[in-house]
């Protein structure tokens, strides 16, 4: 029997960093997914292969350790932790596909963790709800990273366009944001923890100024919520650009991200900003009707990816 689960990556549209200080945020699942397949092994050991990520390893799920056969396994610790929590340690063959880069701020670890846990629940015929899946995936992420955002696993499980309010309550937008986004990602992986700490240090030295920027980011996210509800693309674009300026002002921008933001705008994006923690990672460009030009402009110089907001959360299939 083979159990196959897939889960989407995500982008933050508004409110990253401010959300750490209890301001609202808007995030969305995208149509780029992690797919994990688990099937009984014909050998007496567990293998993990990813053609997309170019690695192969033999896993000891009981000891949470691995032996590398080839390549570099960027995301293996999440898979090991998920297996440690949800598997009986019998030998299986695991196949991982990932349609977006690891460590680029697009929620690769959450998508891989959610898909791995769901594939294991399917393999063991274990019933689960989306709520428990998102929660258990959050626990796995927290164990691996020390700190994690519950929003990432929640979006990856449930998908859609989501508003997180000041009390951390999540609501789903009933409208669809149709235009394609273009993502530009840097080859520089960033640490979310490091960037969050950087902002907190800036805030300690400049409490009045930084607090007022964070509050402004919160107001901006509320305005963005209304603009999305009215499907006002011009206003959404303006707010994305203002948000970029505010993110720059708290020190999470880089030369590479800035170059991509301006390049995207030059080639037709009406709004462009960093998405996620910054300091590397990715930017998003909002480009109704111009996604082709913007995609090529980013792809020519850096790395580009076209994405749409997706309403497809976790999908689990089993086949005999
Ligand atoms: C990182 O994707 C988003 C941050 O706001 C951190 C967090 O919310 O955990 C920078």
Commentary on this structure:
The strands form two sheets. Strands 1, 2, 3, 4, 5, 6, 7, 8 and 13 form a nine-stranded mixed β-sheet that branches. The chain has a four-stranded antiparallel β-sheet with strand order 10-11-9-12. It has nine helices and 13 strands. It is α+β, with helices and mostly antiparallel strands. The chain folds into two domains: 182 residues, Ribosomal Protein S5, domain 2; 127 residues, Alpha-Beta Plaits (2-Layer Sandwich), CATH 3.30.70. Helix 5 packs across helix 6 and helix 8 packs antiparallel against helix 9. The site of (R)-mevalonate has 11 residues, from helix 5.
Summarize this, please?
The protein has 320 residues and is an alpha+beta fold.
Q: Which distinct ligands sit in these coordinates?
A: (R)-mevalonate
The fraction of residues assigned to DSSP E strands is 25-35%
User: From the 3D coordinates, which CATH architecture of the largest domain would you assign?
Assistant: 2-Layer Sandwich
- Estimated structural class: alpha+beta
Feature tags:
320 residues; alpha+beta; Alpha-Beta Plaits; 2 domains; nine-stranded mixed sheet; four-stranded antiparallel sheet; 9 helices; 40% helix; globular; binds (R)-mevalonate
């Amino acid at each position: 029997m083979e159990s196959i689960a897939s889960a989407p990556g995500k982008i933050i549209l508004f409110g990253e960093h401010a959300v750490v200080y209890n301001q609202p945020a808007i995030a969305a699942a995208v149509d780029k997914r992690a797919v994990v397949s688990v099937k009984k092994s014909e050998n007496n050991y567990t293998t993990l292969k990813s053609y997309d990520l170019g690695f192969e390893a033999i896993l000891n799920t009981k000891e949470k350790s691995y032996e590398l056969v080839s390549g570099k396994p960027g995301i293996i610790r999440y898979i090991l932790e998920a297996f440690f929590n949800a598997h009986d340690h019998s030998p299986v063959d695991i196949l991982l596909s990932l349609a977006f880069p690891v460590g680029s701020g697009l929620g690769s670890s959450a998508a891989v963790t959610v898909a791995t846990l769901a594939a294991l629940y399917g393999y063991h015929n274990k019933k689960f709800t989306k709520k428990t899946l998102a929660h258990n995936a959050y626990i796995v992420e927290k164990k691996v990273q020390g700190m994690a955002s519950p929003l990432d696993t929640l979006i990856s499980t449930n998908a859609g366009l989501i508003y997180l309010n000041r009390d951390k309550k999540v609501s789903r937008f009933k409208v669809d944001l149709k235009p394609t986004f273009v993502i530009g990602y840097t080859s520089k992986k960033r640490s979310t923890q490091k960037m969050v700490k950087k902002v907190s240090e800036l805030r300690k030295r400049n409490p009045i100024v930084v607090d007022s920027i964070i509050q402004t980011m919160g107001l901006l996210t509320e305005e963005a919520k209304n603009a999305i509800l009215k499907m006002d693309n011009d206003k959404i674009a303006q707010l994305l650009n203002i948000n970029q300026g505010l993110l720059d002002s708290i020190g999470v921008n880089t030369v590479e991200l800035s170059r991509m933001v301006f390049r995207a705008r030059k080639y037709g994006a009406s709004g462009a900003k960093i998405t996620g923690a910054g300091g590397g990672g990715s930017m998003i460009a909002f480009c109704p009707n111009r996604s082709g030009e913007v995609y090529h402009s980013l792809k020519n110089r850096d790395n580009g990816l076209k994405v749409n907001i997706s309403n497809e959360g976790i999908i689990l299939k089993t086949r005999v």
